[in-house]
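Appendix B, record 7
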Amino acid sequence: MNLLSVLSIGYIIIALTLIAIFFRDQRKKEYYLGRHRTLAWILISLFSLSILTAVYARFIEPWRMVTTKVEIDLNGINDLKIAFITDPQVGNHKRGEWMEKIVERINELKPDLVLLGGDLIDNEGTPPDEAKYLEPLQKLVGHYPIYYVLGNHEYGVSRKVIKFPKRQTGNRAPEVIKVMEKIGVPLLKNQLDCPEIKGQKLCIYGLDDLWGGKPDFHNLNDWGQELPLIFLVHNPDGILEWPENIKKPDLVLAGHTHGGQVWLPLIGPGGDAEIDLPDLYYRGLNYYEDTPIYTSVGIGESGGPFRFMAVPEVALVSIK
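Structure tokens (predicted):
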């Protein structure tokens, strides 16, 4: 059991104890809460609500799955559906069964293209063979064009880990690449591919992870700039690295942030994804210098199976 789960369960036990004490005291006039019963019931209500929230965030929301539909107008592309999945982070909390559900949802949506935005494995002190949980993705191969990029979890790094190398959990990108090659899912690692889908040609440029990999735009020179281009990158900060001498992409698909994993009303992301872009870019469709960026809240968790107002999603991006 991870630290976050221990803290959650510990809080629930403490809150239940306090509710019992408040309930007892409000019945006795010699106690402070007995003389102020309104306050007692306010405290009981607040702690009860906090328990329900903790139970939902720990045991319910992480196991939900929604389809988020996004519509975008792009010149040169008509009637194209992209299933975009990022951050499944299988291994510690979610495994093959969860990946099976993702595959089932994708098949239900019948997309024209499937893109995976990195952080496919957890790599947080988890067993070294966790890449095997990606094997259900093989059921998509041959049915849809499909590509993936690597994220920082494949490399076992974060910005904090870069500063403190001893905290690195190890580079497992080769293991992920080996499994994905076995099941037939191609990697776009600083690479460009221009498939023809539904009689329309478009290009996809996948960038290596900004922190653990070696991002390079050299192969982007093969893009003639006349075809629509989708920029597939794990970290939305990838758009900040885009070469100034090359036309901006028509669409950016990114993940990494988990939408904060905990989204607090009026506050925003509760978790720090350590990105340079403003909090606005933690989730949803936004624009950076007229370039549409869709940042998915992802479909797995980091640090523990804990989410609030950031329901795991399969994004269905419809280009009209």
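Remarks on this record: The chain has a mean pLDDT of 93. The chain has seven helices and 15 strands.
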